[in-house]
Design goal:
The protein is an alpha/beta fold. Helices cover 42% and strands 16% of the residues. It has 14 helices and 15 strands. The chain has helices at 2-23, 33-37, 58-73, 87-99, 116-124, 150-165, 189-206, 219-222, 229-243, 258-271, 287-294, 306-321, 329-332, 369-374, and strands at residues 47-52, 77-82, 104-107, 129-132, 142-148, 176-181, 210-211, 252-255, 279-280, 301-303, 340-343, 356-359, 362-364, 379-381, 387-389. A 7-stranded mixed β-sheet has the order 2-1-3-4-5-12-11, with helices on both faces. A 4-stranded parallel β-sheet has the order 7-6-8-9, sandwiched between helices. A two-stranded antiparallel ribbon has the order 10-13. Helix 7 (189-206) links the parallel strand 6 and strand 7 (210-211). Helix 3 packs across helix 12 (306-321), helix 4 runs parallel beside helix 5 (116-124) and helix 6 (150-165) packs parallel to helix 7 (189-206). The radius of gyration is 24 Å and the shape is elongated. The relative contact order is 0.11. It binds beta-D-galactopyranose. Residues 57, 59, 133-134, 183, 187, 189, 227, 257, 283-284 line the site of beta-D-galactopyranose. The site of beta-D-galactopyranose has 11 residues, from loops.
Length: 391
């Protein structure tokens, strides 16, 4: 395919030179160059391949839709795939995108360790690759990473627990019971979420102010494969049955995202005998969880405006398609109306630091749904007052 592109580029070059020679015009780029930016050397409209993990986790439907809209709004062709959270399927889908002669790859990996081989082809064909939302590891094919500050997502969850309970290391008179539910071990984000929260709360665990009756405090013990709601439900039912059947009170269920929080909430509804309201955290602003927040069943979620993540990815992608090497100036020159930081230190994917653009997450509770989600246009409220995502 690379040879085909090169031959096509040569032919276009010959034609341009001959036209210029005949008309005495310049072969210098002209104002119409912006139109050519969407066209590859062969003059065809450039194509962006977008690989999303699944449609069974709500947020990725929005990511795919926003990304497709953004790139198509700039005149690019888009090939969008969803791989049903099946790692082998995503490898096949990416192989198909590369074979389809794309000019940019945007990938949210199901397994951040599983794409090294397939991305060798992208590297050989000099296709820039944006690692979207989840860092892809052990490959030098990654050009940039666009996500949210995922450690901060966890910190916000931990700080919410700390502030809501009024935890104070100088006051060991009050004690609380907490359980942790983390995400998919294959997802590079999951340990960042868990560690962000655990690092805030560990001093209180060490001081005996926070107790973990199940004893499960290691990431691998509390992880949830595929972020699966039913898996989180079953695990939490087991924890409740083993540690909370004798009247022990559960005060906090710290969940790394909304799909796991949904399962944990269902387990508490069905299997927890206590009459206290359990503080439950989440992430993403999934509609079912926002309804639970309105109804008081879930306490908070951390919202990440994926519409903005798509805008940042678009501007980065356009710069790459124009052969540029963006840096912090992509942000300062962007005119974006959302916060983003340029990070060249935090994300080493095993082959070196991947320059990253990290957006800022937001804590959502019942009290700020209107201002942070509805007034901003991300959601509308249905007839029951439940938020519905605006696709
Ligand atoms: C993470 C993502 C989160 C979380 C999870 C499930 O990588 O950053 O938003 O919801 O996947 O999709």
């Amino acid at each position: 395919m690379k040879l085909r592109k090169l031959m096509a580029g040569f032919m276009v070059g010959v034609m341009a030179f001959s036209i210029a020679a005949c008309s005495g015009g310049s072969t210098e780029p002209d104002s119409s160059d912006t139109e050519q930016e969407q066209s590859s050397a062969s003059g065809e409209t450039k194509t962006v391949g977008i690989a999303m993990p699944t449609q069974s986790l709500e947020r990725w439907n929005r990511d795919g839709s926003y990304l497709k809209q953004q790139f198509e709004s700039k005149g690019y062709n888009v090939e969008l795939t969803y791989s049903d959270n099946k790692i082998d399927q995503q490898v096949k889908d990416i192989e198909g995108l590369i074979a389809g002669e794309i000019d940019l790859l945007v990938i949210a990996a199901i397994d951040g360790q599983a794409l090294s081989q397939v991305l060798k082809d992208a590297k050989d064909l000099e296709i820039p690759v944006i690692s979207y939302d989840r860092l892809i590891n052990n490959t030098d094919a990654i050009s940039y990473y666009v996500s949210f500050d995922n450690y901060k997502v966890g910190q916000l969850q931990g700080q919410f627990v700390e502030e809501t309970l009024g935890l104070d290391l100088n006051d060991t008179s009050k004690k609380y019971n907490i359980e942790f539910t983390a995400g998919d071990p294959a997802d590079n984000n999951a340990p960042f979420f868990f560690n962000g929260a655990f690092d805030v709360l560990k001093p209180y665990i060490d001081a005996g102010i926070l107790n973990v009756p199940s004893g499960q405090t290691e990431f691998q013990q509390v992880a949830t494969k595929a972020w699966d709601t039913a898996t989180a439900l079953t695990r939490f039912q087991n924890i409740l049955g083993s540690n909370y059947s004798g009247g022990t009170q559960l005060d906090v269920a710290l969940c790394s995202n909304d799909s796991t929080a949904l399962g944990v909430t269902q387990a508490i509804d069905s299997d927890y005998a206590g009459d206290n309201k359990v503080l439950i955290t989440g992430q993403d602003g999934d509609e079912a969880n926002l309804a639970n927040i309105v109804d008081g069943k879930q306490t908070m979620t951390v919202y990440k405006a994926v519409a903005n993540e798509a805008v940042a990815t678009l501007d980065l992608g356009v710069a790459l398609l124009n052969g540029e090497t963006p840096d912090e100036s992509l942000i300062s020159n962007s005119g974006w109306d959302f916060e983003c930081m340029y990070d060249t230190e935090s994300y080493d994917n095993g082959t070196g630091i991947i320059p990253s653009y990290l957006l800022t997450p937001t804590v959502i509770t019942k009290d700020n749904i209107q201002t942070e989600l509805v007034d901003t246009g991300y959601y509308t409220l249905d007839e029951n007052g439940y938020p519905k995502g605006v696709q």
